Amino acid sequence: MAFNDDGGGFAFTCDDAKMSICASTWNTRLSQLGKISGPVFIMTGLLPDPEYISQIIGKRPRDIFIIANSDAHSEAQLLKSKFPSVRIVLHINNNAKVVLVSPDTVWVSSSDFGKSKKIESAVGLHSSTVYQRTLETLFNRVWKESKEIS
Fold it and tell me: Of 93, 86, 53, which is closest to residue 70 (Cα–Cα)?
């Protein structure tokens, strides 16, 4: 049975994907961040270990957009004070864990953006279609409903 577009999401095919199981960290997944020229869009519930997150986004602290849950307010404030060019918004119901790296990389993870001591997994995809559709139907929609940290 094939998936179809519906109110719960969109169907896609992808020729290049990776299942990451207990072996990769956000730092490893984004190790080339300093060489990427396009924007990076991050959705996370919490922001565990702001120092660890600072090491990642410090590689290129521009054109980064973060949506976190409102429960991560203090960590978001800390990151915003360290990286004023990074745009951070808070949404009361966000628990999505998605990272979009321009132009075509999508990570969907069980872990929040930060350091985790739990058993986690993630799926990485290289697909400009999935990137664009996720940006339009998920990230941009939630961004508009969120409150920006100044």
Answer: 93
* DSSP per position, 55-101: HHHTTS-SSEEEEEEGGGHHHHHHHHHH-TTSEEEEETT----EEEE
Residues 6+ apart with CB under 8 A from 106: 98, 99, 100, 124, 125, 127, 130, 131, 134
CATH number for 24-148: choose from 2.40.128.50, 3.40.50.2000, 3.40.50.300, 3.30.870.10: 3.30.870.10
Domain ranges of the chain: 24-148
Residue-by-residue pLDDT tens, the chain, 150 positions: 789 999 889 989 988 999 988 777 999 999 899 999 999 999 999 999 999 999 999 999 999 999 999 999 999 999 999 999 999 999 999 999 999 999 999 999 999 999 988 888 999 999 999 999 999 999 999 999 999 998
| Nearest by Cα to 26 from 66, 45, 53 | 53
